[in-house]
Amino acid sequence: MLWQLWTKNQLTSEKWEPFLTANLWKTYVLPGVQGTLTAAAVSIVLALALGLALGVGRLAPIRPIRWVCTVIVEFFRAVPVLIMMIFAYFFYAAYDVFPSKHLALAGVITGLTLYNGSVIAEIVRAGVHSLPRGQSEAAASLGLSWWQTMRMIQLPQAITAMLPVLVSQLVVVLKDTAIGYQITFVEMVRQGTVIGSSYGNYLPALIVIAVLMISVNFALSALATRIERRLRRSTRGPAPMHAEAVEQEGAPGADVLTGQADK
């Protein structure tokens, strides 16, 4: 394989020299990195907030709230991320919700937030269900309301238990920003293809972009793992949930497992 790449002049120094110039990084690479990180950061924050609200709503004792949250979660888990991005993009464009230069970013954030928020809602629900049932019964015997029990007893432990799954899902959010190239969103993968078409070095360009994407994913995973360890040192909760419970990026909704790792 390497020999074939060499014979096709894909490994020659001329193909890699553009990456030694500041102009290429300022014009193509850095804007792509900025777009990816911006979309991922905003989507992660919004998806966590939405997922927490929907997850708690699915556990609410009031049936209408439970039903509404269930419909929302199941609907957005079943719709592909790209479809939601395209719909949001054209909806915002038709009604002038955002300036034209931010339409693609808004579409990407909307799609990622709705899909991953629904996935996180299932993770939250699974985390609460993994707790011993006696805790809620003991809280009720002490006179605590359902909301007080959820907020002070169950949610803190559930969040600790589901951290490995959440970390994996946050990485999925970052990778799914690449789907935004379909609505002209400026992100890392799209910029890599632009570099390849401009300089005739598709393979070196995609290799550089892949290294950058892997580095960003590794940094996010390392940061989240460090936060997870600090939280586990400060509190004792149930065994962590399996990270394999996370859905694949950009895929229709799959069931989130409720299993726990062996203590």
Describe the structure.
- The protein is mainly α and 263 residues long.
- The chain has one domain (17-245): Orthogonal Bundle (MetI-like fold).
- Helices cover 71% and strands 0% of the residues.
- α3 packs antiparallel against α4.
- It is elongated and about 75 Å long.
- The protein starts with a helix and ends in a 29-residue tail after the last helix.
- Residues 244-249 and 257-263 have low confidence and may be disordered.
- Keywords: Cell membrane, Membrane, Transmembrane, Transmembrane helix, Transport.
- This is Glutamate ABC transporter permease.
Core attributes:
single chain, 263 residues, mainly alpha, MetI-like fold, 11 helices, 71% helix, 0% strand, elongated, disordered C terminus, transport, MetI-like_sf, membrane, ArtM/GltK/GlnP/TcyL/YhdX-like, transmembrane
Secondary-structure blueprint of this entry?
Layout: H1 2-7, H2 13-16, H3 22-58, H4 63-78, H5 81-94, H6 103-129, H7 133-141, H8 146-161, H9 163-176, H10 188-199, H11 202-234
Helix pairs in contact: 3-4, 3-6, 3-9, 3-10, 4-6, 5-6, 6-8, 6-9, 7-8, 9-11, 10-11
The fourth-level CATH homologous superfamily is: MetI-like
**SSE pattern, N- to C-terminal:** HHHHHHHHHHH
Stated plainly, the CATH topology is called MetI-like fold
Put simply, the count of helices is 11
Shape field: elongated
Tell me the quaternary state: single chain
Structural class: mainly alpha
Main location: membrane
Protein name: Glutamate ABC transporter permease
Subcellular location: Cell membrane
InterPro entries: AA_ABC_transptr_permease_3TM, ArtM/GltK/GlnP/TcyL/YhdX-like, MetI-like, MetI-like_sf
